[in-house]
Predict the structure.
Amino acid sequence: MFLKKVFSHRKPDFLKNDEDAKVIWTEKKPAPKKKLGTFFTLRFKLRPIMGVMLVSMIIGTVAGGFAGYYAGSYFLTDFISTSSIVTPQIIRHGDNVSLSTSNQDATIAVEQASPAVVSIIVSKEITTSYNYNNLQSPMDQFFKEWSLLPDDFFNGPRIPENWGPNPPEQPAPEEKKEKKEIGGGTGFIIFSEDGLILTNKHVVSDTEAEYTVITNDGEKYEAEVLARDPFNDIAILKVQVSDLSEIKLGDSDTLKIGQTVIAIGNALGEYRNTVTKGVISGISRRVIAGDASGASEVLENVIQTDAAINFGNSGGPLINLQGEVIGINTAISREGQLIGFAIPVNQAKQVIESVKEYGYIVRPYIGVRYTLINKDIVEKNNLEVDYGALIVRGTEESDLAVIPGSPANKAGLVENDIILEVDGERIDEEHSLSRSIQKHKPGDEVELKVYHQGEEKIVKVILEEYNKPTE
C-alpha cells in the first residue's frame, strides 16, 4: 500500500492537509502542444539561412576556380618540362615545329608513295535465274513471318493440280547476265610512261574477268593483264595512260629484322590507301599460301612483317621509311595476329624487265617437283644426307616428279633423286632450288650435284624457257 501511495499520481493522504504540501507537491500537467507553422512560415524563417548557404557556394566556386587555374598552370608546366626528358629523339629544321624522327619519316614516306598506289576492282558477268512463280510481295512476306494464323489463311486453300481446268502456263525461269564486282585488291604503278602496274597473281587470276584500276584521286581506268608469273605470286597490268605517279623500287636484299616498314592497300576492298605501320619480323621465310578457290602455292624467301595486312591489301606495296617499295604484300596467317608476308621486290625486278623487253615473263625452268629435305624426312627415311631438294610426285596422279621432255628429264634425273647443289651452292631451306634456278636465264647451263641411289654424281642441265608464248 505504501508503494502504491508513493507512486500514485494523486496526492497522498498524509499530505492532503499539510500547507507545505502545496509547495513541494504539484501535479504535473501535460505541456500544451505547440502549433506547427505553415509551409510559408517555415520558408520565411529559413530564408536567411538559405541565402547564406547560396552566397557561400558562389564565393567557394569562384575562389576554387582561380586556385585551380593557377595551381594547374604551375603543375602542368612543370610536368611538361620534366617529361620532355624521356621523349623520342627530336629533329629540328630551323624554327619549324619539331617532330619525332620516326613519325616524320613515316609521314613523308606515305606522302611519296600513296599517289602511286591503286585499287584493283575485279568484275565479271554473273548469270542469275529469275523464277516468276516464286516472287512474293513484301506484304505476303510480312504476313507469313508475323501472323499467328495457319499459313494457308492468307494464301488461300490449296487445290490439287488435277482438279478443274488446266491452270495458265507460267513463264519459265529467265536467265539474266549481270556484271558484278566479285573481288578486289591493290597494286602500284612502277612505270608511268608505259602505264605498268605491279600486283599479285592471285588478284588477277581469273582470265574471264575484267579489271578496273582506281587511282588515289578517284580516276578509273580499264586495265589489261600483261603477264602472270608461273613461279611466283606476281602479275603486271597495263593501263592506257602515261601521266600517273610512279613509285620507286628499293633493295630487298639489304633488309634487316626490326626495320620499320609501312603497308599500303585497299583494305577490305573498301578503304583505299589504308596505311599500317610495323617492323620486319623475319626474312627468307617459306610458306604455303592458299586462296579462296582452294589453290595453293609455295612462296619462298618471303618477308614476314607485323604491319597489318588486311583482306584487299594483296598486291599493295610494303615500303621503307624512304618511300621505296621493298616488298609486295601477298599473304596473311589465319592462325596468328599481325603475321603477314610480302614478296621481296628484288624477285619482281627480273619479271618487270622481262615484260618491258619481251612483253611477257621469261622464266627458266628445270622441270622437277621437289620438297626440301628436313630433319623429319631424314629420320623417317633413314637418309644419309640431311639437305638438298628431294624429287617427288605431287598429290595428283598427273603430278609427275619429273616432267616429260623437260631439261631435268633430258639430263637423266629421276624420282627420289636429291639435288644437293646448283653451281656449287648448297640447297637448303635458306637457298631453295627454285631460287637458285631463277638466278639464271633460259639457255644457261647449270651444274648439279645429285645424290642418286646412294652415290653422288655431277649432272649438267641446260635450262629452257617456261611456256614460251607462240607467235
Q: What stands out?
A: The two ends are 144 Å apart (CA to CA). Residues 1-9, 14-28, 69-99, 142-163 have pLDDT under 50 and may be disordered.
